[in-house]
Records
---
Amino acid sequence: MNKFSIVFLAAGLLAPFAADAAVKSDGLSQSVIEKSFNAITPALCLLEYSLEITNSSTGEISLREANSTGVIVSADGLILSQGHLVLENRRPLNIKVSFPGDPEKKYDAIVLHKPEDINLSFLRMTSPPAGLAHLRFDEGPALSIGEPILVLGLLRETLDYTHALQIRRVGAVLKEPRMTYALDDAVPFGFVGGPVVNASGKVVGVVGFDLSPQEGGELYTRSGHPLVYQSALFNKYIAAPPSEETSGAREDAWLGVYTQPLTDDLAEYWKLPKSGGLVVSTVIPGSPADRAGLRMGDVVTSFNGRAMTAKQDSDVLGFTKLVRESPLNEPLPLTLQRGGESLDLRLTLLPRPKSGREAQEIEDTVFGLTVRELTTDVRIALNLSEDVQGVIVRRVRSGSAAAVGGIRPGFVILALGGRPTPNLQAFTNAIEAEKKAKNSEVTFFCRIGANTAFFRLQPRW
């Protein structure tokens, strides 16, 4: 049995290999299938790694072995892979890259900073081999409902991670808040992150899954269904790859409000036109919205010259995207309804504050915990005012002095050994002072929800 017969059998295509290029398989010509398979599979690789997983409830860390499909996208070893490889509570360690044709030869790779606007991960081989095959993506072709597409990936370990293909169709097209193509059926895990080819043989994107809100999804959350991430969404990261380290606060614009759509029921209750809008539910203190005078209950009807007509939750995402892509540090017009009157304001957007995912953190080996700086989004989630100054516990090592003493993830450490810890530097200084003093007992003063409490820890000097 030749190579293609094996692949077709694995993909559920029971017909034998046809020499006639005009023969079509589920809408794709045999010529497109063959040419695409031969051209793309040399750029597919297997990523093997140890996945460090942090239990969000206990802070305990566990390791498990995992793997993913990768696509080589540059001659110098840039790799694109599925986004769930890197999440808030997990990160890959000791990454090895291999190719199905030569599984014994492995190359090291590192993870690059994950993009904020698409659930894909990028990695880089530290010492790529010469003549590395890589894939280029076409941006032009759009997909249409019912269109057949070819998805390439790897089979599982029991089938030696063999190159394989699946044929799917575009099952749905969602245009807001950005163009989204949903597949008509599930795909095996080895095809997540795999290239997608249209009926003309163009490589138009990769298969992906959006993050759910529980996984950190914020702007684009079409989660739970396989999607086609079109090339235009990620080609910019191939042209200018992310760095290994984060660069601090993002340069996305920030308004500093939480909104909800003006439904017809709300409009009727407030005696407003049923043309939609954005109801301000929260204004973050000190934000551009706060400085411009926005209040809870205001209804935004226009922003920077564009009418706001939101009537359902998905429409709010479009407003969020519009704000993020707006100019920084220049006055922008905003129109709102307040108490039956129309008001025109001008506000100046600022760079979006650092998020919890981008926050700096340090690991303390004395007491066995990892702490992170408090960011605006965490303060909002925990209902912490600006006068609460401390560091938040991210992880607690099992069996450590912190674990035995009752410290848990989510606690905000306000003081350590009687020394205030308003930031990471102050926390580090307090730890160093305790190392010198070597007291048999150290007191932690923490905020837990709306309450505060003292914890007496006994470090093992």
---
Amino acid sequence: MAKGKGAADFMNGRDERSYIQDLAGQVMAAAADKNNQRVFQRWRDVNALRHPDRAPVWCRPVGAWEELLPTDDLVCSQAELRSYERYLRQLLIKKDMGDDTPLKPYFPVNAVFDCSPSSQWGVDVNKTLPAEAGGAWSYDPPLQTAADFERLQIPHFSWNQSRTEQSLEEAHNLLGDVMPVRLQCGEPISGTLGTYAAELRGLTEIMMDTILNPELLHRLMAYLRDAALQGMADIEASTCLTSNYDDPMTCSEPFGPDPGDGPLSFENRWAAVNSQEFDPVSPAMWNDFCLEYQKPILERFGYTAYGCCENLTQKLDGVLSIPNLRIVVCSAWTDLDTVIDKVQQRHVIMWRQKASDVVFTDDTSTIKAHLEEGARKLQGCHYQIVLRELQTLAGYPDRLHVWTDLAQEAAAKFA
């Protein structure tokens, strides 16, 4: 549904459950459309190191969703229905936008797990919130001294079958025969260990620890590695693990050992991790304090996508040593020419765009020129064009539609 209309324009006497089912029906119709099948094939081709008709193009609005679909524009008054409405309407907005969002013909429901200890780490992680909306938060880390490390515990995750089945039943009762419901379950602790390290120790502190307290930082990273591996073991033991090869960026054909009628393993899943918190350190320090602790996690997965907004230009040799690597992320701060030279056609290059350059310009010809220059350089490579981490549209409500068109035109021109 288009945004900006009031509830009365949508409802016309219908109840909210019927409205949700109508939205679900629209998504299902779009998912069955031949264009969506081409989108899936485009992703599967590129991530299988084949050459699709053109590189897939995808954007992730993140903070800009509040401008695309303001909370005040949600129709449902019942709190339990608003999350369904937001999810389905976001998919329809992406369909209208026209990027390569693979529309899934089902509604995902997350498996529910209980964590022990309840705080996950054995210590409470807090943040200092901004004084005003849109401001920056700051870390309030619990690990202030070496003695605080004694409080850390390895978390364990146990499947809450009754709550999971309740969530599945509620979704099925709402969506009925309009949209199937499917369980969704992945790793509880990401291999992006730096995020947790910064939350527990503080970003400034882990930078200082690389020099002043290296053994303490090694201790923290080893703990996080072990916690991630234990979480993966707990999930596999629950037999709830599901695949993630129908998601944007990592959409692919099935891979890993055929489980037959048995449960999946992490060899049937993608890992998508990064090292943003370690961006400022040298390649040697990044390898010692981050990558070496990530590798035992990543080797458990079938495929790995590595990187986000960090500059990996000088760290590419380390990235290319990652087991099961399939996607190398080239951020706006990573040198594209160096990535092309190092990666060649052995992996997929995820060419990330700089959100501020896309949003904060009156002249979209600069966007077009940048996309065409990059697509020309990438011609012959296996690559994706991705725009993420948007926080605002800066008064240009159609900017993502324009960017999508320009990116797809550039990808087709240099296919």
